[in-house]
Structures are given as C-alpha cells and as structure tokens.
Amino acid sequence: MKGPFEARKVSKHVYWVGSIDWGMRDFHGYTTKRGSTYNAYLVLGGKNILIDTVKSSFKDEMLARISSLINPHDIDYIISNHSEPDHTGCLAEVIELVEPEKVFASAMGVKALENIFHAGLEVTAVKNGESMKLGDLNFTFLETRMLHWPDSMFTYLAEDKLLFSQDAFGMHLATSQRFADELSDDILHDEGKKYYANILTPYSALVTSLLKKVSGLNIKIGIIAPAHGPIWRGDDVGKVLNWWSDWAAQNPTRKAVILYGSMWGCTGAMARAIEEGLVAEGASVKVMPVESCRRSDAATEVLDAGALVVGSPTLNNNMLPAVADFLTYLRGLKPKNLVGAVFGSYGWSGEAVGQLRDILEQMKVELLGEIKANYMPDAEALARCRALGVTIAARLPK
Ligand code: FEO
Predict the structure, then answer these.
(1) How many domains does one find in the chain?
(2) Which residues contact 114 (CB under 8 A, 6 or more apart)?
(3) Domain limits at 219?
(4) Ligand 1 contact, 55 CB (< 6 A)
C-alpha cells in the first residue's frame, strides 16, 4: 500500500523529498504568516544522493518521501549545503540510519556540523569550485560564505543544469505546489521580498557580488532548487535573479516608513502630522504603529524605502520597550541608503528622542530633524512635524 507522502519529480535525475510546515509562524523573530517548507532533494544517477535534510520534527515525512522511490538505506552520499538546523536538524539521525559512504559539506560546514552535533560525524570538506563525479553525474560546489552563514554553499548538477541554492532564492511559503510557475507573482514577490529583507539584508553587498559571480560562471542554470519555498525553472530563473539583484541594491524609493509607539496618542498625533507633510509633497508613506504591526513587516517596508522616521514617547527615562524591540531588529539588518528623523512627546524628562537618534546614527541613517513635544503636541508642534515631513520628502528620489 502506498504511504501518504511521495517524492515529487523536479528534473531528469532530481526529486523533491522535503517537508511542508504549514503551521510555522515565527522564524526567530520573523513572522512567517504562510508557514514554510524545508526542501531536501534526492538525486538518482548511478548513486543515490541526498541534498540537505529537514528540521528534526519533519524527519519522518522526508524519509517517507524518499521511501516512495528507494529504500533510505540505499542512500550513498549526503551533501549538506547549509548547517542551520532547519536543514540539518535530523542529519545526525539520518546518517546513523542510512550509513552513507560519505557526507560532504564546505570546510566551514564541517566545523559547524561538529559544533552543532558534537557527535564526531565524519564529514568530508569540499573546496570552493571543486567538481566531483558521483555515480554518473557531475557536481560542482560553490562556497557562498555569509549567505547567510559561514558554511553556506551551492551545489550545481551539470547534467540537469540545476543549482541547489540552499537558503538563497528561497522564501517562507508553505504550499502544495512545488514550482514557482504554479503560483502567482504577487505571492512570490511578497514572500520573496520579505524573506530577503529579514534574512539577507545585512549581506546585500555579498549578494550583489555573488550574482555577478554566478552570471560569470560558464554554467547554464535551467533550474534553481532552494531550501525553502518553490523551485524556479524556465523564465522564472531570470525573474528571481533580477528580484534578488534589485533587493540587494537597496535603491531608495520615494517612500517613507514612519514607525512609532504611543501611550496617549501624543506621539501618534506627531506621526500623522509628519505623514501629512510627506504626502503633500508626493511621497508614499507607510505608517506603522508598533502595537499593531510585526517587526518583520517593518523590515520588509524599509528594504525599498528612502526614509525611516521613528517616534517614541518617554517611559521611565526610556523609549517604549516595543519601539526598542523594532529598532534592535532593524539595526541588526543594517538597511542602507536611508534618510530619517526622530520625534516623540514627553512629560518631564524626555530621553527617548535622544535614544532614538543614537540608534539611527548607529544605523548610519542621515538624520534630517528631531522634534520633541511636551505632553500633547500643540498646533505649533504639529506644524513643525508637518514641515519635517516636507523636508524629508524633498530628500527622497523623485
Ligand atoms: Fe533555512 Fe539558514 O536556514
């Protein structure tokens, strides 16, 4: 009798044998409202080769999909492109079960796997650019250090013109469709951009040089098989490469993000006045009260914004904890090419605005203004806020 889980054919020699996590909603602080997939692949060509594994709690689903094609004990080799536990959580158990001839990873991957498992796993390091024939098929390994971990690498399968790209070109999207051409561009772009913004933004310069390197390689890429989300084939390969190139450039647009917290509506009133000034000058504005949005949505909006404007009242000599949460997250992502401003109301001490200024300066945001209002902003304070919006708009691209 057939089991419930089956492998899905990707190309002549490659099958998807991953798992679908419909319920995942948080990826260390990144809200994943559409869940995710952990993509493992089985390559059959003289030898049986498993590319990556899955999160530990999804091991049985992966093994069941493999079993729809071969006995998992017949896996000859495992290639680990990336050591993060969403792709290696069950690796040690799978190695113990399968007893493969060899496990391959980058040199940094060998170290990471030892430091994650402390199990004396025998893992063979492959070199950047090294090619290797496994069974009847030819594989080439390409290190992609810090995209997004030091161990990360791509594996290219020449016969199928297929690039196993681990996290790169992926997205957190649980879907029963395996290919991007079965999904709408709106969903692909939204979730792809969110994934880029929340995982890759700090490494954008490396992404740009990697994309140049990949296009300079003497290889044809007909399929990109990432470790999360749908597989790109045909025209979609160029599409996702272009999207990534755009996101990595972080070119500012005529858009401002106003991120703020408020206790009694005073800082909120300032935010709306700044918004009015921006809108009057033709800028688009995303107003994000921290109590009603997610930090990962803020990161996604900031990716293509030209301005980041942040407000907080002062609570016990500090900015609001929720605003600090968002800024800690955004500071780690190191967005670029932003102008900005800070604002907030206060009752008696008023330290928050200075704290916001310090963080935006650390983020290398070019500050264009700073406004404090005592208790509820009066007409004069609101007029200054509106004028600040006009000033910011003047610095945004037309
Ligand atoms: Fe999907 Fe970096 O792990």
Answers:
(1) 2
(2) 120, 121, 123
(3) 8-249
(4) no
